[in-house]
Amino acid sequence: MGLSAFPHLFPRVALFATLAALAVPQVASATVYDQAMYDQLVSDGSSAKEARCVSALPGARVSLERYVDGYFVSVAFDDSGIDPNTNPQETDEDGNYSWEIGDGDYRVSVTKTGYWRAFSGIVQGPGAIIDQHVGLKRRPGTPPPEPRDCSTDEPQPEPEPTPEPEPTDPPDHQPKDNDPDVAPQNTCLLRPVNARVRGSSVRAVVFTLDGRVIRRVSRPDKDGVFGVTVERTTLPRGKHVLRAKVMFVRSAHRGAEILRLAIRRCPERVSSKVVKASPHARCGGRTFFAWVRANRVRRVYFRLDGRRIGSDRVADWQGRYGVMVNPARLRKGRHVVTARIEFLRGSDLEHRTVRLRFRKCA
Question: What global pTM score does this model have?
Answer without folding.
Answer: 0.39
